[in-house]
Amino acid sequence: MGFSGYLAAPGKRLVLLGLKLLFLVPAGVPARSGDSVLKDNITVRQGDSAVLKCNVDSKVSRVAWLNLTTILFAGNEKWSLDPRVVLVENTAVTEYSIKILNVDVHDEGPYVCSILTNKKPKSTKVHLIVQVPARITNISRDITVNEGSSVSLMCLAIGRPEANIMWKHHSPRGTHRFLTEGEHLEITGITKEQSGAYECIASNDISNPDIRTVTVTVNYPPYISKARGTGTAVGQKGVLQCEASAVPRADFEWYKEDRRLFNGLNGVRIENQGRQSLLVFFNVSEEDYGNYTCVATNNMGITNASIILYGPGAMHDVNGAAVIPGCSLWLVLSLPSFYLLQF
Ligand SMILES: *[C@@H]1O[C@H](CO)[C@@H](O)[C@H](O)[C@H]1NC(C)=O
Ligand SMILES: *[C@@H]1O[C@H](CO)[C@@H](O)[C@H](O)[C@H]1NC(C)=O
Ligand SMILES: *[C@@H]1O[C@H](CO)[C@@H](O)[C@H](O)[C@H]1NC(C)=O
Ligand SMILES: *[C@@H]1O[C@H](CO)[C@@H](O)[C@H](O)[C@H]1NC(C)=O
Ligand SMILES: *[C@@H]1O[C@H](CO)[C@@H](O)[C@H](O)[C@H]1NC(C)=O
Ligand SMILES: *[C@@H]1O[C@H](CO)[C@@H](O)[C@H](O)[C@H]1NC(C)=O
């Protein structure tokens, strides 16, 4: 008598009946009464194939593979409707194994190989564990905020075992450090030093970590980091240098006293190169000496610094002091004793 005759329409209600038929030929013996061997767990990565092995011998009269709800194979007969479940072509007479192709997470769970030998039921249990490499499924978009704002970044990841999520910050100056663990990263009162790339690292030791990056741009008003003049003799080329740090990048204007200077007029050229602006005098004359102001502006604010174009003989190391915005060296330079020191 074949099993299929009793279970022509396999369904969950029939599984118990099927189990009984497979386990019990001597009627009335409970299904779980046979020897049961728990083999090691089988760990398979999602997408790979799992081979469930069952040892048999020549005395075995009936064999079947079952999962929690269904008879998958009874002898050579396939009961599972899932095309991914196949019988392994028996390499040895002593083996009755099935293969699950393209394993997915819902395949995880216990499987039973049920054997009937000399009218004695026996079963081998295996537990299939499905691993999924950590993978980031959603992450915050790159953002631009103003200095002082609060920022919250999000990074969602899947994985089995559950992915561990870590945040790492790469500052624009090239330094980097680990910040925190977890899906969310909160930054209150962000500073310009906290701009840069935020790396989300999701890992679970199944494969290499999945890493994605959010770029946080922090807008801040300009500050003048360098304001330098040169001692230049009449008839020579003179250069005043002004450098501003700002996001977005600063626009520059140059003034002499209240008069704005324009590129190409009055014998000067204005050369803007990224963070810095140069005021170039083609041919310095006596009237050019004096107090100049470099003004740096962006949509966050405005600042300025005074820079002196002075004659030859003035000390070079006083230049640096002109960095202090709004502070002038003109008075210092005009002190006769100061000049005397130079000669
Ligand atoms: C098999 O996996 C189960 C469930 O994950 C676990 O409880 C059990 O300890 C594992 N057994 C072995 C032998 O690894
Ligand atoms: C058992 O196998 C059947 C057929 O392959 C499948 O539809 C069902 O989801 C499986 N159940 C479990 C708990 O793995
Ligand atoms: C990612 O998360 C955001 C915020 O929760 C949501 O609006 C968006 O639809 C998500 N994107 C995807 C691809 O799931
Ligand atoms: C610089 O200006 C002076 C006076 O205007 C002039 O004599 C001289 O030729 C100029 N030098 C150059 C290099 O243009
Ligand atoms: C330079 O800054 C000072 C102080 O903020 C301000 O009073 C002055 O008007 C500024 N000068 C220019 C030319 O913008
Ligand atoms: C130089 O110019 C700036 C801006 O106009 C002004 O604040 C400062 O007092 C001036 N310094 C001198 C010595 O005139």
UniProtKB/TrEMBL annotation:
Transmembrane helix as UniProt keyword: no
Domain Ig-like: 26-127, 133-217, 221-310
GO BP annotations listed: cell adhesion
Signal peptide: 1-31
Domain of life where this protein originates: Eukaryota
InterPro entries: Ig-like_dom (IPR007110), Ig-like_dom_sf (IPR036179), Ig-like_fold (IPR013783), Ig_sub (IPR003599), Ig_sub2 (IPR003598), Ig_V-set (IPR013106), IgLON_domain (IPR050876)
GO cellular component: plasma membrane; side of membrane
Pfam family, one: V-set
Main localization (coarse): membrane
Keyword annotations from UniProtKB, A to Z: Cell membrane, Disulfide bond, Glycoprotein, Immunoglobulin domain, Lipoprotein, Membrane, Repeat, Signal
UniProt cross-references to SUPFAM superfamilies, sorted A to Z: Immunoglobulin
Cell compartments where the protein resides: Cell membrane
PANTHER family linked: IGLON FAMILY OF IMMUNOGLOBULIN SUPERFAMILY-RELATED, NEUROTRIMIN
UniProt family annotation: Belongs to the immunoglobulin superfamily. IgLON family.
Protein name: Ig-like domain-containing protein
Protein source organism: Periophthalmus magnuspinnatus
Organism placement in taxonomy: Eukaryota, Metazoa, Chordata, Craniata, Vertebrata
